[in-house]
Amino acid sequence: MLIRLEPQGKQIELPGRRRVRELLTKLGIAEGTVLVIREDELLTEDEVVEPGDDIELRAVISGGSA
Amino acid sequence: MKCKRCSEKAAIKLRSHNAAFCKACFLFVFERNVERSIARDEMFTHDDRILVAVSGGKDSLALWDVLHRLGYTTEGLYLGLGIGTYSKASQQRTEEFAEQRGLSLRMVHLEEEDVGVTVPDAAQFTRRAPCAACGTVKRHHFDRAAHEGGFSVLATGHNLDDEAARLLGNVLHWQIPYLAKQQPVLEPTHARFVRKVRPLYRTSELESATYAFLRGIKYIVEECPNSHGASQILYKQLLNQLENEMPGTKLTFLTDFLKHGRQAFAAQPAGQLGECERCGMPAMGEICGYCRLVAEVDRRRSQAVAHS
C-alpha cells in the first residue's frame, strides 16, 4: 500500500494488510493527530487497509503563534 | 466500529468523547456543539452581523460553513499576509469556498503599498518572531475591518487545541495580562472595537479537520512556512501526549481555567485605552502596537537601503 503523509508530502510504500491502529503505531503517529483517508472516506483505527490501497495520513495540527 | 447514535459504520472515533460517529451523526453533533458554545457564552444572536476572519485553513472555513448553515448573517474577511505561494494558495481556497456558497468575502492585501507591512517584511526588518508580528498585523486589520464595516461581532476559528496551547504557554511564562484576557468572548473595551468571539473553542483540531473533510471543504493543508519551530506547535504536541494518556485533558484544562482560574488574573487593573495618533484605532499609548511595528519596519528598511 502507498502511504502519503500530508502536509509533508512524503510517501511510504508498505507491504501486507494491517489494521489502521497498527499502521499508525508502526509509523510512530499518535491516534487522533491525523485523518486517515482512503479515497473519499475516513477510516477508524479498527479498519483494515489492504495491499494496493492508497492511504493519506493528513495531520490535523496547525498553528504558529509565538 | 459503530456510531454511538445510530449504530451505522463509524467515520471517526473521538476518544475525548469516548464515542465514535458516522458521517451524518458527526456533522449533526459538531454543529450542535458549536451552537451550544454560541448560546452558553452568549456570543451573538441572529440579529448580529458577523465578520468571520478566514485564512483558507480547516478551522476558519469550518466555522464559516457552520455559521452559514445555522442561519447567521456572515461575511468573510481574508487577509493576504504576503507569504509567497502559501498566501496565494490560501487565498484561492478561501475564494473558492465563498464562491461555491454565494458568500460575501472582503479582502485586505498587505502587499498593497497603502495598507501597511507584510509579515515577511515585519519579520525581516524587526527583531520580532514572524508569528508575533503576524499576530499584531492580524489584530489590527481584523479590528479595523470589523469597525469600518459596521459589524457587531468578529469571529475567529481558534479551536480547543489553539486555546489549550495558548493557555499552557501563558501559564509556563506566567503572562498575567494574557491570562486575564483569555476567554472565548472579549467584550469591546473601546468604541472602535467590536465583540470578538471564538465559537470553536471547545472543539478539537481533529473535529474541525473531520468536519471540513466530511463537508467536502477544500482547505489549505500545508502549513505556514513561518510556523516551523513555533512554540505553539510544541505545546500542542505536548498536550496531545497528555490527551493520548488521559482523554479529555485539553478540554478540562481550558474549561476549568475559564470556570475557576481566570477570575484571579482578571482582577488585575487594566490600562486606559486611548486612540492611536496615526491610525485612530484603540491604543494603550500615543501610538498603537501595529503602527509602532510599521514605523520600525520603515525605519530599518531605510537604514538597510542607505547601507546597501
Structure description:
With 66 residues, chain A is mostly beta strands. Chain A is built from one helix and seven strands. Chain A has one domain: Roll (Ubiquitin-like (UB roll)), CATH 3.10.20.30. In chain A, the strands form two sheets. In chain A, strands 2-1-7-4-5 form a five-stranded mixed sheet, with no helix packed on it. In chain A, a hairpin with a 3-residue loop joins strand 1 and strand 2. The model of chain A has no long low-confidence stretch (mean pLDDT 92). Chain B has 308 residues and is an alpha/beta fold. Chain B has a single domain, classed as Rossmann fold, CATH 3.40.50. Chain B is 50% helix and 12% strand. Chain B has a six-stranded mixed sheet, with helices on both faces. Chain B has a two-stranded antiparallel ribbon with strand order 1-2. Chain B has a two-stranded antiparallel ribbon with strand order 9-10. Chain B is globular and about 70 Å long. The chains are: A mainly beta (66), B alpha/beta (308).
* Distance between the first and last residues' Cα of chain A: 38 Å
The largest sheet of chain B, given as strand count, sense and whether it forms a barrel, is: 6 strands, mixed
The general outline of chain B is: globular
CATH topology of chain A: Ubiquitin-like (UB roll)
User: How many strands, which pairing sense, and closed or not: the largest β-sheet of chain A?
Assistant: 5 strands, mixed
Record field, number of beta strands of chain A: 7
CATH homology superfamily name of chain A: Beta-grasp domain
- Largest interface (C-beta under 8 Å): A-B, 22 and 45 residues
Round the mean pLDDT of chain B to the nearest integer and report it.
93
Supply the CATH superfamily name of chain B: HUPs
Strand residue percentage of chain B: 5-15%
Structure class of chain B: alpha/beta
Structural class by secondary-structure content of chain A: mainly beta
Q: Just give the CATH class of chain A.
A: Alpha Beta
Find the CATH topology of chain B. Answer: Rossmann fold
The CATH class label of chain B is: Alpha Beta
